[in-house]
Specification:
48% of the residues lie in helices and 14% in strands. By secondary structure, the protein is α/β, with parallel strands linked by helices. The structure holds NADP nicotinamide-adenine-dinucleotide phosphate.
Length: 259
């Protein structure tokens, strides 16, 4: 299917690896030119070169911390006007409710709520002026089914979800859509880190921790960044213009609910 994205310009944050990378690749495969971001320059430059070679699109890498104000300013300046924004950043660490102090919440809110909001505030006006735009926020399945050890993530993502619910309806009249993609467990470094924590806590191997988690998913496996990216590219497509303010779960059936 032609997604109508040839020549569109997309900013994909936190995209040298994992789910952000999956989104960047799927958008590039659909013909979009990219600005991609991550903190580590080496992996980012390698990702940019790989995507350029494979898809023949323009890829501008910007090494910066998207969560810091300076980093965001650098990325936004390099990006200029964009048609598509995919927000993403690393997720907060796991823990217990009694571990977390105010500073931990502020850090989580900064990364997973206030950063995407700041990026939208900066880029929505241009999309509105041009009469077309797409925003996809990478959030988490924890929005629909909170994960107890990820209380910092549960809190920050819930805040972003509330913001998007209102804002998506305010910008929809101008041809701009905002939606959230909610990953369940996907095979990335983040999943490895979480599984390593379980392996250490339970005294089992990493493979065993993975196998146990996969067994709880109806699809009996982890999702892939490519599958995740394909869903993102569709949400960014011209065909998806009537999908507004939705929270779409990609979890292999792990969340047992009807809506
Ligand atoms: P990942 O494999 O750890 O990849 C993270 C990517 O983001 C890397 O390219 C990393 O590069 C970049 N990054 C991290 N922090 C950044 C920052 N402050 N500024 C710029 N770039 C940054 O993570 P992932 O699994 O793709 O997860 C992406 C998001 O989805 C996270 O918020 C995660 O919590 C959420 N999520 C993931 C899963 C899952 O199963 N994978 C499930 C639910 C939710 P640098 O380190 O070089 O910056």
């Amino acid at each position: 299917m032609d997604l109508g994205l040839k020549g569109k310009r997309a900013l994909v944050c936190a995209a040298s690896k994992g789910l952000g990378r999956g989104c960047a690749e799927a958008l590039a495969a659909a013909g979009a030119d990219l600005v991609i971001n991550a903190r580590g320059a080496e992996a980012l430059l390698a990702a940019a070169e790989d995507i350029r070679q494979r898809y023949g699109v323009t890829v501008t890498p910007v090494a910066a911390d998207i969560v810091s104000e300076d980093g965001r300013a650098t990325v936004l300046e390099a990006a200029g006007p964009v048609d598509i924004l995919v927000t993403n950043a690393g997720g907060p660490p796991p823990g217990l409710w009694s571990d977390w102090e105010r500073a931990d919440f502020i850090a989580a809110l900064d990364a997973n709520m206030l950063t995407p909001i700041a990026l939208m505030k900066a880029l929505l006006p241009g999309m509105i002026d041009r009469g077309w735009g797409r925003v996809v926020n990478i959030t988490s399945q924890s929005v629909k089914a909170p994960i107890p050890v990820l209380g910092l993530s549960n809190s920050a993502r819930a805040g972003l979800t509330g913001y998007v619910a209102g804002t998506a309806r305010q910008v929809a009249p101008f041809g701009v859509t905002i939606n959230n993609l909610l990953p369940g467990i996907h095979a990335t470094d983040r999943a490895d880190a979480l599984d390593r924590g379980v392996a250490e806590a339970d005294g089992i191997s990493l493979e065993e921790a993975r196998a146990r988690r996969a067994a709880t998913i109806p699809a009996r496996r982890y999702g892939t960044p490519a599958e995740f990216g394909a869903a993102c590219a569709f949400l960014c497509s011209t065909q998806a213009g009537f999908i507004v303010g939705q929270n779409i779960l990609l979890d292999g059936g792990a969340t047992n609910s009807v809506l």
